[in-house]
């Protein structure tokens, strides 16, 4: 299972990419950013289970729920 040690690296790269995309003025790029954040949340949970990092898992679940809120707000152009 040592290959799971490497899951943290793509998770980190995808998280950084997502943060960059979320800052875009284009709604399409922001949407891709939210999707990237969701993928990174899943990867971090996988790694957290492997590493017994339960606080990280709880954090990722909370961040995923906040990303759902952001995704909804990004989809409705009339909300600020």
Describe this structure as you would to a colleague.
The chain has 80 residues and is mainly alpha-helical. It has helices at residues 8-22, 27-51, 54-75. The protein has one domain (2-75). It is built from three helices and no strands.
Show unreliable segments. Answer: none
- Alpha carbon gyration radius: 14 Å
What general form does the structure show? elongated
Tally of discrete structural domains: 1
In sequence order, what are the helices and strands, one letter per element?
Answer: HHH
Tally of contiguous helical segments: 3
Q: Report how far the terminal alpha carbons are from each other.
A: 45 Å
- Kindly name the structural category: mainly alpha
Helix content: over 70%
Work out the strand percent: under 5%
Task: Annotate the secondary structure layout.
Layout: H1 8-22, H2 27-51, H3 54-75
Helix pairs in contact: 1-2, 2-3
Short description:
The chain has 80 residues and is an all-alpha fold.
List the main descriptive attributes of the protein structure presented here:
0% strand, 80 residues, mainly alpha, 3 helices
């Amino acid at each position: 299972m040592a290959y799971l040690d490497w899951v943290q690296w793509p998770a980190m790269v995808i998280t950084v990419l997502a943060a960059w995309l979320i800052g875009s003025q284009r709604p399409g790029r922001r949407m891709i950013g939210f999707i990237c954040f969701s993928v990174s949340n899943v990867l971090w949970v996988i790694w957290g289970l492997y590493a017994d990092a339960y606080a990280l898992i709880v954090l990722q679940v909370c961040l995923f729920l906040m990303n759902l809120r952001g995704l909804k707000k990004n989809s409705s152009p009339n909300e600020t």
